[in-house]
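Write out this protein's structure.
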Amino acid sequence: MQLQRQCCLWSLRPRTSNERRATGPTAHLASKNINKDRESGMNNTQQYFAETSRILQNMPQDEIAQTIDILRQARMEGRRIFVMGNGGSAAMASHFVCDLGKGTVEEGRPRFKVMSLNDNTPLLTAYANDCGYDTVFAEPLASLAEPGDVAIAISSSGNSPNVLRAMDVARDRGLTTIGITGFQGGKLKDKVDVCVIVPSDHMQHIEDGQWAVLHAIFLALC
């Protein structure tokens, strides 16, 4: 009851000068600015989608096909597949592992032995704290990997030190290495057997392309 009385008193009180101005010319100008911003935002959105479409039409098909072949062979031979990345690329690594690990299960076909090296938070932070962040993928890989396994590095820049160090370990141990990147491949392209390079120098477009690549690979393996 008390709350209702307060609401009634509020509605009956005289408006302040600021509240009166909000319904005058200033409010009309603000509305025009909002509409202008909305129109500009829509134009930017359309340009973004158009550029994304152009990039997807120019993806490196040969390297994507090679990646599919490598993973298909790893599946048939029971090889382990290690995936890694930082930040948004870590999210991609985890998502891709979920897709391969669960989404491809089918009776009568081998299951993928796939794991993300960025999902064990205690182990990752222990290596980061004690040995340095550039070791967080290399050290677990050195413990788990065997010749013939596969290591997939997801790095939009292609220059993440911990990813590059892990690729060095992978090659030393006889793993097949794959990079999924942008920005002309960075340093990663020279450290992997196959490098899928999204043809863009714009971070968000590169990430869009990486997601599309990973989903396309997954569907090809289902």
